[in-house]
Every structure is written in C-alpha cells, then in structure tokens.
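Morning!

This is the sequence you dropped in the shared folder:
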Amino acid sequence: MVFGRGRKAKQEQLSEPDTARDAVGGDAFADGAVAAAGGAKTSGRAATGPFDVSEIDDQDGYVDLGALLIAPSEGLQLRLEVEEATQRVVAVTLDLAGSSLQLQAFAAPRSEGLWDEIREQIGQSVGSQGGLVEEIEGTFGTELVAKLPAGGADGSQGYRVARFVGVDGPRWFLRGVFGGEAALDRDAAVGLEGLFRKIVVVRGENPMPPRDLLQLRLPKDTGAAPSPQAPEFERPERGPEITQIG
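The structure's back. Tokens below.
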C-alpha cells in the first residue's frame, strides 16, 4: 500500500478523483473481524459497516488517520487532501485498480442523520454548475450519481461522473465519493465498496457542532519495522476537489 499527501483541496467543487492510478490486488484484511461491544447481536450498519470504533474488538492492523481507521489492502494507495488556506487535512482518497474513493467524516446530531438533507444540497450544488443528479437505490441505500460538464484534452465536451454514498452512524456521518470506473460500473466498485464497509470512524467524545469535519491526520510513526502492507510515502500531489456540505 502506498501512502501520499495531496498538496491542497479546493472547497465547493464536485469531487474529481484521480483515475490514472494503476493499483491492483486483493484485500488482505480479514472479513468478519468486527463484533459489537459486549458481544451483543448486531444488525444493519453495525453488522455490515462502516463501523464505529466502539463496535470493533481492537484497532490493531488498521492505518490510523485520526478520525478514520483504514483497513490495509494490497495495491491500495492513500492520499490525504490538505486545505490550502488552513493546512488542515480535510479528506482521504483511496485509489485501487484505476478507481478512487474519497472519504470525509463529519459530526452529526445524536438523534437524527444528515444524509437525507445532504443529498438535496449536493443536488443543488451540481445543478448550479450545469450538471445532472440521479438518485438511485444502491449498495449503501439511497445514493446519488452526479454528472458535470467537462472538457476533454482534445477540446471535446463530455461529462465527469461521481457516485455519492452516505452512512449515518452514532453522532457521525461518513460520506464517500466514488470516481473512475467505480462511479459507473458496480463490478469495478466491488473492491472499494469492500474497503468502505471496513472503515472505522473515531468520533471522539468532545462536543462538536453538526457538520463539522472530524479531524484527520498523517499516520503516526510507531518505529516498528514496516510490513509488506505498511504505507509508503510518495511525492506530494494535488488531490481531488472537495464538495462542501456545511
């Protein structure tokens, strides 16, 4: 797994993930490693993921990015996106087999979810840019497929496509944006969808206004010898642009 850091992220634009990666390989992180705290029987999101940190037995084996724990996978590349104005990390993008998945986690109210109203806001944002949005029932419930006008290198006009998914958890909301073939082809999305289900959100106990981004950071250096799946750093590069939801 390769780990890189994006140079900047721009607000209020539709995510445009980099699809030029050539990462291949299977998922080496074992399925079924998650159990509810106290051994209680689980259903719904708590059984299938993404998970809250309280729903896993331990955090060993994950890539620790602060608010998000990522299951390693052979061929996976990670990029943290940094907001230029504040230098804070605002998103992480997973690149696998030519497709990408951008992740952001937000604080949410205890008693209600955010995804219903956020879908409406994404649709308005895409529409204001001359794009189209289709709401579909997908792997993670109600999803959005967004198309925005885009010019090709040869001057031709077409569309770029992004598939938005959202999951409401206990006092958090996780948004994913699939790009590349995974935005259009369900078969091409299988690997990234599996990784999305294994995401663990670390909300923390501090009070936070709803929609505030949960803090991401570079992984800590434990000083241990690197494993075959340990992240490696690559040259910084510009990451995908971020769609603001707050």
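Headline: The chain is about 10% helix and 30% strand.

More detail when I'm at my desk.
O.
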